[in-house]
């Protein structure tokens, strides 16, 4: 409920707004409209929106962009700003419908959790205020409109009448001056273009690293410094898996609306191998080794901002189709920039597929605190010996980088051989045969 004092103040403003008008029914109705607008404004108070809590490990970020500007109106939960952190981009939404009154930070500024970000005046949301201003610009006071329509050249003076109404020479001289002044501009516009840059230019461009790239660099260097990394390789004959995929991919796409790829097979093979080599699914915390009874698979996904590793949880209980669905959903979220911190938290083992970019060999880096990472590569036709005969087979080179603090060479090689055996005969995975 509004107080009587507020209503009286609003009515008094309406009275003064119409004090220069005659007291007619039209003027009184206009006055009441003015009063109504002041009453509505009195109902609301400006609200300061702060930088939201992003995660326990994140205390600040970079204000990447403003989606709205001062004077724009927003709906409730509509995005106003985007804050970039070292893991994800966080959207700051309007808590209520209203109009943006003031922006309290600039783009590229570092903002902390709880810091004042912008001020909003609650009200009705909708289109921005700019179009309304454009509509009101053509409307001008009547006295100005009359001046425009009735503007005429000044009446000649008595001296002009004596000289036959001929205007003085001054205006003609000014026109000549204008013409003379316009000549240099034309000459400037006709100036020859700057000479082209000489071949072999040695220019440089400096671009500030975004927070995600800085964090990736920090994490990778930390992994190199902390882990005793070692990589072992093996070759896999992909004939059986490619034949199975070719036979069932259309049926899987029709029934489950998901493409059957190689990632689900490798994820399933790694899950079964991790059960037999639990050290590859463990991590070091202080002076203790933590063995996990579950498999949370981190899948490396390349995005425009950098490499991210969303997690498919409890892969040990999934089949090929469920794994493909989860990987596809996380991949789409990563490319659209919609991953949350929960999507990337945790992970006990990582698979990185550099083969989609044509990589033939590579040594992936361990994603700490995990103890191993599997690297997939491109499939190439190679001559191999089968039953004493040289035949051409599609072969993929796989690499396992492992932390030698946890895994010995015997365990790492055994793990990779088991993955190879599962992929070369996928029926073993369906029958849970080692």
In short:
This protein is of the alpha+beta class and 434 residues long.
Task: Explain how this protein is built.
This protein is 38% helix and 23% strand. By secondary structure, it is an alpha+beta fold. The strands form five sheets. Strands 9, 12, 15, 16, 17, 18 and 19 form a seven-stranded mixed sheet that branches. A four-stranded antiparallel sheet has the order 1-8-6-3, with no helix packed on it. It has a four-stranded antiparallel sheet with strand order 5-4-2-7, with no helix packed on it. The longest helix has 20 residues, at 170-189. The radius of gyration is 36 Å and the shape is globular.
Terminal Cα span: 75 Å
Rg of Cα set:
36 Å
Distinct helical segment count: 13
**Which of globular, elongated, flat, extended, rod-shaped describes the shape?**
globular
Helix proportion range = 25-40%
């Amino acid at each position: 409920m509004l107080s009587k004092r507020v209503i009286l103040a609003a009515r008094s403003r309406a009275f003064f707004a119409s004090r220069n008008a005659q007291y007619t029914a039209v003027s009184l109705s206009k006055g009441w409209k003015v009063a109504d607008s002041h009453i509505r404004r009195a109902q609301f108070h400006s609200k300061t929106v702060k930088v939201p809590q992003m995660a326990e490990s994140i205390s600040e970020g970079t204000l990447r962009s403003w989606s709205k500007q001062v004077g724009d109106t927003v709906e409730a939960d509509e995005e106003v700003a985007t804050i970039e952190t070292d893991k994800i981009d966080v959207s700051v939404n309007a808590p209520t419908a209203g109009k943006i009154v003031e922006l309290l930070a600039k783009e590229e500024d570092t903002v902390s959790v709880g810091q004042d970000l912008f001020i909003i005046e609650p009200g009705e949301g909708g289109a921005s205020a700019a179009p309304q201003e454009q509509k009101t610009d053509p409307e001008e006071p009547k006295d100005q409109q009359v001046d425009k329509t009735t503007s005429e050249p000044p009446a000649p003076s008595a001296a002009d009448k004596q000289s036959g109404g001929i205007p003085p020479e001054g205006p003609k001289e000014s026109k000549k001056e204008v013409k003379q002044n316009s000549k240099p501009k034309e000459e400037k516009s006709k100036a020859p273009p700057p000479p082209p840059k000489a071949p072999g230019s040695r220019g440089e461009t400096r671009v500030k690293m975004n927070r995600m790239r800085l964090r990736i660099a920090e994490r990778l260097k930390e992994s190199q410094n902390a882990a005793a990394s070692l990589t072992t390789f093996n070759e896999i004959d992909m004939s059986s898996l490619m034949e199975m995929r070719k036979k069932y991919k259309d049926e899987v796409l029709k029934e489950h609306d998901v493409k059957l790829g190689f990632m689900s097979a490798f994820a399933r093979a790694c899950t079964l191998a991790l059960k037999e080599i639990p050290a590859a699914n463990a991590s070091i915390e202080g002076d203790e080794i933590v063995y996990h009874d579950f498999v949370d698979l981190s899948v490396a996904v390349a995005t425009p901002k950098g490499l991210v590793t969303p997690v498919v949880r409890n892969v040990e209980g999934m089949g090929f189709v469920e794994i493909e669905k989860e990987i596809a959903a996380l991949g789409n979220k990563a490319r659209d920039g919609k991953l949350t911190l929960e999507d990337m938290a945790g992970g006990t083992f990582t698979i990185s597929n550099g083969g989609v970019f044509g990589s033939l060999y590579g040594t992936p880096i361990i994603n700490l605190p995990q103890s191993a990472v599997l690297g997939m590569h491109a499939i190439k036709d190679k001559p191999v010996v089968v039953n004493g005969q040289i035949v051409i087979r599609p072969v993929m080179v796989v690499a396992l980088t492992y932390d030698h603090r946890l895994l010995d060479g015997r365990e790492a090689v055994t793990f990779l051989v088991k993955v190879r055996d599962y992929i070369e005969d996928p029926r073993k995975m369906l029958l849970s045969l080692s």
